[in-house]
Write a structure and sequence with these properties.
With 191 residues, this protein is mainly beta. It has 2 domains: 1-30, no CATH class; 32-190, no CATH class. Helix content is 6%, strand content 40%. The chain has a 3-stranded antiparallel sheet, with no helix packed on it. Strands 7-8-9 form a 3-stranded antiparallel sheet, with no helix packed on it. The protein has a 3-stranded antiparallel sheet with strand order 10-11-12. Strand 1 and strand 2 (11-18) form a beta hairpin.
Length: 191
């Protein structure tokens, strides 16, 4: 007897083979569909992007890191990178440094419409990455800063090889620019 489990997006198929026969059971996965939180005029995802086209499962998970170019195509269907105006609008809302699930980050918005962005660090040195442009999510990876700072890409380029991004550390949060070759986190907004 052996058991095979295949993850087919939203359906998990399990086959148990017994003495030449196979029984297949299908069960829907209990995956949460991202609905987002409206802050100002923008609906923000509640979780970061992990692998391309997928959100992580908890707001406190930092997800993957992407260059600005690869970040342009990592949001799941119906979602995209925020533009500068949307980041500026988010920054006009109340925010504070908080801890969620033991992870330091920043909460934006007014209750009940709030989002938590974990401190993600960045990667600005050459390091191995997967074919989809994602940096290791291993918390023991010492190739990048993991704490004390939040770095999130916007969809808009700046000048001289840079792009706009959301930055926060301690009591400060702002939009600024950074090298497009750095690996930063992605928090999507609804299309």
């Amino acid at each position: 007897m052996f058991k095979v489990q295949l993850n087919l997006r939203k359906v998990v198929a399990v086959a148990i083979c017994l003495a030449g026969g196979a029984t297949i059971f299908a069960q829907e996965e209990s995956a949460q569909k991202e609905t987002g939180v409206k802050i100002g005029e923008t609906t923000w995802a509640t979780c970061n992007v992990g692998d391309k086209g997928e959100f992580v499962t908890k707001p406190s998970e930092s997800g993957g890191r992407y260059t600005w170019e690869s970040a342009q195509n990592v949001c799941p269907a119906g979602w995209r990178l925020p533009n500068v105006a949307e980041i500026e609008d988010l920054l006009k809302n109340p925010s504070q440094q908080v801890t969620k699930d033991g992870v330091l980050g920043r909460e934006f918005g007014k209750t009940p419409n709030t989002i938590f962005l974990p401190e993600t660090g960045n990667v600005n040195i050459k390091t191995p990455f997967s074919p989809n442009g994602e940096i290791s999510k291993n918390p023991n990876d010492n190739n990048h800063s993991r704490s004390k700072f939040g770095y999130y890409w916007s969809s808009e380029k700046a000048s001289m090889g840079k792009a706009n991004y959301l930055y926060f550390a301690g009591k400060y949060a702002r939009r600024t620019t950074y090298s497009r070759t750095a690996y930063l986190a992605v928090r999507c907004v609804a299309e």
